[in-house]
Amino acid sequence: MFIGAIGCEPLQLARVQLENSTSLDVYRKHGGYEALKKALSEMSPDEVTNEVKKSALRGRGGAGFPTGMKWSFVPKDSPKPKYVVCNADESEPGTFKDRYLMERDPHMLIEGMLIAAYALGARLNYIYTRGEYRYLIEIMDRALEEARGAGLLGKNILDSDFSCEIYTHTGAGAYICGEETALLSSLEGLRGHPRMKPPFPAVSGLYASPTVVNNVETLTAVPDIIKMGGEAYQKLGTEKSGGTKLWSVSGHVNRPGVYELPMGYDDMEKFIMEDCDGMLNGGKLKAVIPGGSSVYIMRADQIIGKDVRMDYEGLVAGGSSVGSGGFIVMDESVDIFESTKNLTEFYKHESCGWCTPCREGTDWLVKVFRRVASGGGRPDDAQLMLDLCDNIEGKSFCPLGDAAAWPIQSAIKRFPEDFKKHLVGTNGKPQVEV
Amino acid sequence: MSQQLTQIGPLSQPVNIGDEVASFSSEVEAEINWHLAKYPMKRSAILPLMFIVQRERGYLDAPGVAYLAKRLSLRITDIWEVATFYSMLHTQPVGKYHIQICKTLSCKIMGEPGITDHVCNRLGIKPGETTADGRFTVSLVECLGSCGTAPMFQIGFDYHENLTPEKVDQILDSLP
Amino acid sequence: MSTEVIKVTINGKEFEVPKGARLIDVCRDKQFDIPSFCYYADLALQASCRMCLVRIEKMPKLQTSCTIICTDGMIVTTQSEEIEKAQRSMLEFLLANHPLDCPVCDRGGECELQEMTFDWGGLEERFTEKKNYYPEKYLSPMVANDPQRCILCKRCTRVCDEWMGEDAIEAGGRGANTVIGTYGGWLDCSQCGNCIEVCPTGTLLDGTYRHQARPWELTQTISTCTYCSDGCQMSLGSRGGDLMRIVARDRYVNGLNGEFLCVKGRFGHPFVNHEERIRTPLIRYQKGGKLIPATWDEAIRHVAQKLDAIVDAHGPNALGVIGSPRITNEANYLLYKFATELVGTNNYTATDSQNLKPFFDNLAGPLATHRDIRYAKTIVLIGGEPEELQPLTGKQIRQAVRNGGAKLIVINSTPIRLIEQATQFIHIRPGAEDAAALLLANNSNDELATQKLGIEANEIQNLRQTIADTQGDLVIMFTGELIGAAQAVMAQLPYVFRGEENGRRVLLHPLPLYNNSVGAHDMGLMNGAMNQRQMLEGAGDAIRAIYLAGSFPIEQLRAHEDALCKLDFLVVQELFETDTTAFADVVLPAASFAEIDGTYTNNDGFVQRVRQSIPPVNQSKSDWMITAQLALELGLDFKFELSASAVFHEIAERVPAYAGLRYPVLKDESNPVQAKYEIAEERDLTSELIALRDAVQALPETRDKREVTPEVGHELFKIGTLTDKVPQFHLLAAGNPRPATLRVSPLYQITVDADLREPVAVAAE
Ligand SMILES: Cc1cc2nc3c(=O)[nH]c(=O)nc-3n(C[C@H](O)[C@H](O)[C@H](O)COP(=O)(O)O)c2cc1C
Ligand code: SF4
Ligand code: FES
After folding, report:
1. Ligand 1 and A180: CB distance under 6 A
2. What tens digit of pLDDT does each residue of C397-449 get?
């Protein structure tokens, strides 16, 4: 599996290939904790936040919310404690970038969190890692221990008057706990149900205190931003989406892996056919889900010759979105009806059950998919599915409901023939309204 | 009391979960205390503690649940509501080796069905079942974050990736 | 909510609404119907059913009106095709896995899901797949459960937690597999059944009424509970002379308790039609003989002759007349009238070991209503255990703290469950409550009091500080066990803690044990020369005959059996044959609360109606009619004919606090009327304080404090004459096979710090 940067100097992936890259020494040798030193000695918390604002860094967890702005929502004057929580729940199908960041370069995450904590005045911070990533938790714990030993954690970090602790926390198998408010419920020892917004976590999050939840990749970008300065980082990417982005590539390509690309990388076809070394044993490209399962699926002809730019604006223009950068490539062998059924089963399994449309809707949809798959398809089933999706979309309590609807809506609209196959009409003719 | 008691069977299913409370070695207690110390609120340690109880007792059995409730000063129902929410927590016994095969899209299109068949044929059970000797449980699970190294499964907490039938055999053979 | 008004436009019409108003309430208030399941006033917001969607301009997507606080200039649409489709589809989703078995569902006919489907639902059912299935079961002797009908509005789990503080029922599982239940499948709680009450569907059902009647067959009669002094309003559902069930559903009744009832109020009614109810009057012709059935005329004549003879021979004071804190004001009033006007005896009282007279004689402030308690800022609870003995008060206290942020100070010899909500728990020696009263009166006896209470001086300082800091309502509650002097002192506390300057009201809330303890006092029965103990001691010499409504408390009875044997004549009005009727020469069958009209007065001082739901069982008569008939036989016609309201009319004329009250005035249970007790001016309490001081002086310092929190239900589940007739209560009393109870400690009540936590540190246990 390939891990590396293309079209830019590796930032996030600068150290992943080094001999025991997880050790503090190696990290330090390669400029580790310089940014922290700089922040603590030369910058005020607000200056740190400003640099991050300038960098045009957008949340890498999926929502793509400008990180600097999110930080600035935290009420500095609040008497309550503040918390920084790292979202390492990475469960979006097709996404595995955070895993390798933590596996190969834990200290980069620690440094990023420390800088964030300094900017927000947080003393106690958690890394919420999905339960299946147990071995990553062990790596992180070792790294944290090392950092403690070196005075990078705990009281008076680097002899400044800044004191701060970071702990790992384990999830236990629930995709919804990646949603930031559900994550906080889970971290408080409750069922992983999302919470009402407003109040947003920045105002009332963990233990009803101001909390910033950031994705691993978002936080690991922070040290470089501080080191090179916000503008420089932003320039690596586009105006609205600064810096570089990790793409987790899987499916029918010769070279799956984690690719670091500058934001606005040109273009998706080149990326698949050259950088990812082309389609697996010469297969023909059929579809791509570019941003993790929760985005619109793209037809080959929306990619080939369309030079789709790989950043937030570019992908929206191309008919999908960046999401979490889980880049799933499918060749002609894939039946899009089947792949959509597979994802719908995922959402049904992961629906937390809190709200009516998502709980009952995904359950119903899966039942329809299974009936159709087992030959019980009816002419109007596609219509039914679309209507059910419409009844879920925009009405669920949290975005998981929408996330369940989008793949189906786009699949039926963009791959009607794959559904027709399964929906034999009463007149013997396959039919599906689109 | 002259009147007959209202019939509560056949509908009723009273379960007395008993009064036994699990106890653990001092090492394990120390580990538990370490987790409790991480959080401003005891309750936050519920998931780490559940994994420990599960590791020590195989699954979250009644005494284990009673222990958690007591240790976190919660009510058994609070433990129950959490334990049943997360798919990695077991309120029923599972095999010594829990083989969790990823069935989500990337693994699916990269050959998960073949791997599942191979594992199941070899062990003579269907997904969701446990071998008679209680050694193996096979489950199909959702994306485990190894899409780039599909197909894959996890045994306990260990990742096994880029699987082929031969590789599966080696892995299963090498298990103590 | 502030008084400031803002403008919102709903469906094109502009309205002025108070700032901070909730959109769903506003819409409903303005007659725009908004469907909802999970929204329930005064419970934590849920926003999970998604029924209440509306369109708000400048907002993406439809919004749940239950979560929206109105802002100035907000433009809202509640009716449109888009919204209708959304609502219809939510119902379609809710019905997808629903069994649609209304014909066999106890809730059918009063089911919110059913009604909502008729009002908002679509016509054809598109869901043709296999439905998820869960088996029906009982969760406890009281609660039946059909999980398949559940729509997961979680009202049940929220009332269990927020009202009852028990958190016994919860949601388990995830996604489409979510079910409401408990660990081990057995419900370990106080069995209040409020989860059943608030359930909008047939998921949680009254296990004692299963498949017994359809709602529309029942006649609903609004009445007052006959168990404790909180006086919950309830709806008695009867069919063909049988009392089938009791509910507090707001579609039938809207009393001070909302939809709240406790296990006794809700499930304690089967005694009414019980086969052991006394069928006819009974006469024991000679001592030691058997009770033999008789006609009413015969029995009344017999009693009249006997009493006549005894009064002739020994004078009026030889006849003791004893009312009851359980029967209506009308009944107690006629007994008082009988004793004072007809017989002329000084010896009358009620079977209540606690006499509230000293309290009411010195009452210096208004009684706290249950609403006042809910919105109080500080609550001081001296002795008692409301969560078991006055459950509604317990619930109000809990909500005041949890939903209203009130401060609760518990002064008790036992760590009762309410200390989980308490900001301060003052753990005192058993029986030392009087000393606490002494402390509150002034600080000149602190040393003595703290010593007797077995507490630290600073505990008092904190208590006094909290009271001094209170802005808003200060509610002081106490049990009736206090001696007279202590009660007088308590009654005058409003003067001690007065603080108009920072908007403080001092409200008092006595916690008597019985449904009409207060009424028995108001009717004058407690002014008699003797209390029940003295009367029993006097039995056989000073007292020759006793005319008793109800029975003696068992411990009183046991203590004076021989004295009772020496009585010349004992006449008892009762529902059942009891240990007391065993000594009676005549037993007259009385009608239960479900069979009569009348009034009870609760611990708020609310005078509330008791309404006839079914005809008197067997030959029973309501107590006051029996007394009237007896009086008539003795030559005095009370002239009330058969009208309870006529009796009450006279009460209103004779009892100053009840002046102007009439049945029609008390008609609407949703705004109950408080008796106007005379407010005593500030008194010089020297003598009381001396008496109190001596009493405290005499307190032992040896008795140790109780350390264990009593189990849920240790009082509620006790078997009494009435609950003895309810099979399920015997199951509860027998321990309701359940796992060992573990205490709850709600998450948000722990204060949070974010201080560095030494990773090696060991958590303090
Ligand atoms: C259903 C759902 C699942 C999510 N899963 C993840 C996840 O696994 N990892 C993650 O970082 N963010 C996830 N998110 C996004 C988070 O809610 C949140 O936006 C993000 O953690 C914020 O961090 P960022 O601003 O750095 O992206 C998820 C959101 C939703 C609605
Ligand atoms: S959409 Fe509703 S049911 Fe689905 S995950 Fe979010 S809150 Fe839970
Ligand atoms: S009432 Fe608003 S979502 Fe249920």
Report:
1. yes
2. 999 999 999 999 999 999 999 998 999 999 999 999 999 999 999 988 999 99
Scanning the structure block, which residue is given the tokens 């997880």? A22
Residue corresponding to tokens 């599909």:
B150
A356-403: per-residue pLDDT in tens?
999 999 999 999 999 999 988 888 899 999 999 999 999 999 999 999
Q: Is B49 on the interface with A (CB under 8 A)?
A: no
* Digit-coded pLDDT (tens) for C365-397: 999 999 999 999 999 999 999 999 999 999 999
Alpha carbon nearest to ligand 1 atom 1, residue: A400
CA of A89 to the centre of ligand 1 (A): 8
Give the CA dihedral A294, A295, A299, A300, nearest 10 degrees.
-90
All residues at 6 or more sequence positions from A151 whose CB lies less than 8 Å from its CB, including other chains: A157, A158, A159
Q: What is the pLDDT of residues A219-269, one digit of tens each?
A: 999 999 999 999 999 999 999 899 999 999 999 999 999 999 999 999 999
User: Residue by residue, what is the 3-state secondary structure of C598-649?
Assistant: EEEECCCCEEEEECCCCCCCCCCECHHHHHHHHHHHCCCCCCCCCCHHHHHH
Atom of ligand 3 nearest to the CA of C50: 3
> Which tens digit of pLDDT belongs to each residue from A147-158?
999 999 999 999
Strands C204-206 and C143-145: antiparallel
What stretches of B41-155 show up as alpha helix (H) in DSSP? 46-57, 62-71, 76-83, 105-109, 112-123
Which residues of chain A are within 8 Å of residue C36 when distances are taken between CB atoms? none
In three state form, how does the secondary structure of chain A look? CEEEECCCCCCCCCCCCCCCCCCHHHHHHCCCCHHHHHHHHHCCHHHHHHHHHHCCCECCCCCCCEHHHHHHCCCCCCCCCCEEEEEECCCCCCCCHHHHHHHHCHHHHHHHHHHHHHHHCCCEEEEEECHHHHHHHHHHHHHHHHHHHCCCCECCHHHCCCCEEEEEEECCCCHHHHCHHHHHHHHCCCCCCCCCCCCCCCCCCHHHCCEEEEEHHHHHHHHHHHHHCHHHHHHHCCCCCCCEEEEEEEECECCCEEEEEECCECCHHHHHHHHCCCEHHHCCEEEEEECECCCCCEEHHHCCCCCCCECHHHHHHHCCCCCCCEEEEEECCCCHHHHHHHHHHHHHHHCCCCCHHHHHHHHHHHHHHHHHHHHHCCCCHHHHHHHHHHHHCCCCCCCHHHHHHHHHHHHHHHCHHHHHCCCECCCCCECCCC
Contact A192 B85 (CB under 8 A): yes
Using the Cβ of B10 and the Cβ atoms of chain C, whether some distance falls under 8 Å is answered with no
Task: Label residue C88 exposed, middle or buried (CB < 10 Å: 0-12, 13-18, 19+).
Answer: middle
- Taken as a whole, chain A contains a residue count of 434
Note the ipTM here. Answer: 0.93
Q: Is A65 in the pocket of ligand 1 (CB under 6 A)?
A: yes
pTM exceeding the 0.95 threshold for the entire prediction: no
**Ligand 3 first shell, C-beta below 6 A:** C 36-39, 47-52, 64, 66
Write the CB contacts of C217 (distance below 8 Å, at least 6 apart in sequence). Answer: C239
User: Which of C45, C49, C116 gets mutated to test ligand 3 (max ligand atoms within 8 A of its CB)?
Assistant: C49
- Alpha-carbon gap, residue A316 to C252, rounded angstroms: 55
Asked whether A404 lines ligand 2 (CB < 6 A), one says no
Does ligand 1 have an atom closer than 6 angstroms to the CB of A215? yes
C678 CB within 8 Å of a chain B CB = no
Of A308, A305, A300, A302, which is closest to residue A329 (Cα–Cα)?
A300
B20 has a chain C CB within 8 A of its CB: no
Q: Are B115 and B79 in contact (CB under 8 A)?
A: no
d(CA C283, CA C712): 42
